Amino acid sequence: MLTARLSRPLSKLPGKTLSFSNGENGTRRTLLFYPASFVPVGRRTYADAVNPVGSKAVLVTGCDSGFGFSLAKHLHSKGFLVFAGCLLKDKGDAGAKELDSLKSDRLRTVQLNVCKSEEVEKAVEVVRSSLEDPEKGMWGLVNNAGISTFGEVEFTSMETYKQVAEVNLWGTVRTTKSFLPLIRRAKGRVVNISSMLGRMANPARSPYCITKFGVEAFSDCLRYEMHPLGVKVCVVEPGNFIAATSLYSAEGIQAIANKMWDELPEVVRKDYGKKYFDEKVAAMETYCNSGSTDTTPVINAITHALTAANPYTRYHPMDYYWWLRMQIMTHLPGAISDRIYIH
Ligand SMILES: NC(=O)c1ccc[n+]([C@@H]2O[C@H](COP(=O)([O-])OP(=O)(O)OC[C@H]3O[C@@H](n4cnc5c(N)ncnc54)[C@H](OP(=O)(O)O)[C@@H]3O)[C@@H](O)[C@H]2O)c1
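Above are the sequence and the NAP SMILES. Below is the predicted complex in structure-token form.
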């Protein structure tokens, strides 16, 4: 299995320098070579695609910004009937307004906080009542809504762990359960947006990692259960695209850091010290400025999962550095991968 998983991308290696670092301080070292023709994992062929035209309905959560916003527009351009769930539609958020300004019958924004069961149920009703024949169901659900934060385990409050899980994990579970009756009727698709951090952990990212590992486990269980019913479940694991979305902002990082420091127990504050704390915040700022600025690989991966006759189980839209790091961290013994990337 290991050979099979490595063979597709590795078969396309030799040619160009690849650098790597421990990810936290931003320094990079040369590791191996890959060819100029190496096709990024997020780029897929579209052979045997299902036909999106014919009012195939898809609901995407978290469309106020980032991947969700771009995806809603992209799926609309491909002919889908798109329901764009927006957290702040009722508050007149710019993202929802811009989607509404397209004034298309096939792109409808819906107020949707995935943490609120009543809003999720209302969204199901909006979709159901818009379908020509609700008994034929809806084609796709993309669980994209998410939030993130950072901080060592000892810096992170229980409240923060719960807040992130409420959106990323329980929001995904809640929304999926509510839409499944419609998806099952169409033998459709569930696409869950996880992260490379749902496959490999990273220091100072435990509140986020545990929710994305949970999304991966949930997706696997659901895929096994749905297989006999004809529903396909896919996971998309983006790398670092923070520079291209609203997951973090410079002000956001500072606000999180200030709140975290203010609320730290005295013993933690004293033992780690402000210098160490500030260095970790600076490392996070560097990470957030270093990602890809083009979200096309992510949008293409999600589109493939929704349209290919035989979609992949997992998609890895990420650059070579993160792809290789993920392979090493998930397939080599911890004693080795820890030495390469963590220690
Ligand atoms: N960007 C990356 O590098 C990256 C990498 C791996 C995975 N991801 C994942 O990709 C997904 C999209 O993130 P993004 O990078 O596009 O960030 P983003 O621009 O912040 O998009 C996330 C969206 O989710 C919305 N949201 C937050 N809480 C919500 C809730 N309770 N209910 C419904 N919607 C909610 C946000 O609304 P507001 O804007 O109104 O807050 C925002 O529109 C997330 O699941 C994230 O974990 C991102």
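The chain has one domain: 57-248+294-342.
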